[in-house]
Write a structure and sequence with these properties.
267 residues; alpha/beta; ProC C-terminal domain-like fold; 52% helix; 8 strands; Rossmann fold
């Protein structure tokens, strides 16, 4: 049975672990490690089935196969420096830190032999099994890749993409929950201002959004046609749609995504 270690047990790391550990069909030993021991104890105590190590030397004694680096980008090089003191032969390093590319990982582990490197980007919906997790790599054994794919499929879907698209992927997936929450908040806040109770407003808007997504999935026409079909002349929808178009709604969205992509671009 393969073993995986997650370094960094913040919100994203713990969300992934929750999804993985909830999948009873995925057989592996999963460990967690965090430099802040209070955080480590809290997460290990909350997630049934999660093991832990107290220092990185235990990667060797515990025969860890896959190491997932989930620390902040500014801490990646320091973690790699510590890991590089170990013999990581035949191990796989997966890094999900924003804007940390494969070249940077290669430079950090250039003295290691027969090591596999994978770049990944999940999103916070992993905790409810609905993440989009992107992977990019250069060279990796098919069995090692299959293990990683299956592990993260516990949290949603997995997409293998070219690394050149990683910054765009970060903006349209990794960052997207925040923008969706903002959209949801704007609509529900409006409903509350108009006198709706919070629970009812949330229920109505949630159903309208999920229903709209299902309509897209089941439609055989493009989105512009779907919009036009709803915006009948002299109707309420078209009046609101005019406001969106007059104020450059799509352009605002694209500017938002571009700003996120710029930040996610490897330096």
């Amino acid at each position: 049975m393969k073993k995986a270690l997650f370094i960094g047990l913040g919100h994203m790391g713990s969300s992934l672990l929750k999804g993985i550990l909830n999948n009873k069909n995925f057989k592996s030993e999963i460990y967690g490690y965090d430099a802040i021991k209070e955080t480590q104890q809290k997460v290990v105590g909350a997630l049934k089935g999660l093991g832990s190590i107290n220092n990185l030397d235990e990667i060797i004694t515990n025969n860890i196969d896959v190491i997932v680096i989930g620390v902040r980008p500014e801490s990646v090089d320091d973690i790699c420096l510590e890991l590089n003191k170990l013999d990581l032969s035949n191990k796989t390093i997966v890094c999900m830190a924003n804007a940390v590319d494969l070249k940077r990982l290669e430079n950090n582990f250039k003295e290691q032999e027969n090591i596999s490197l994978v770049r990944m980007m999940p999103n916070m919906n992993a905790s409810v099994g609905e993440s989009v997790t992107a992977l990019a790599y250069k060279k990796i054994d098919s069995n090692k890749l299959d293990f990683i794919v299956k592990m993260f499929e516990s949290c949603g879907i997995v997409e293998i993409i070219d690394e050149s698209n990683f910054a765009t992927l970060t903006s349209i997936s990794g960052c997207l929950p925040s923008y969706v929450f903002s959209f949801f908040k704007g609509i529900t806040d409006y409903a509350l201002e108009k006198g709706f109770e919070k629970e009812q407003a949330f229920r109505i808007v949630q159903s309208a959004i999920t229903g709209s997504i299902k309509s897209i999935e089941n439609s055989n026409v493009d989105l512009k046609t779907m919009i036009d079909q709803i915006c009948v002349p002299n109707g309420s929808t078209i009046e609101g749609q005019k406001v969106l178009e007059e104020n450059g709604f799509e352009d605002i969205i694209k500017k938002c995504l571009q700003a996120a992509e710029n930040k996610a671009t490897s330096k």
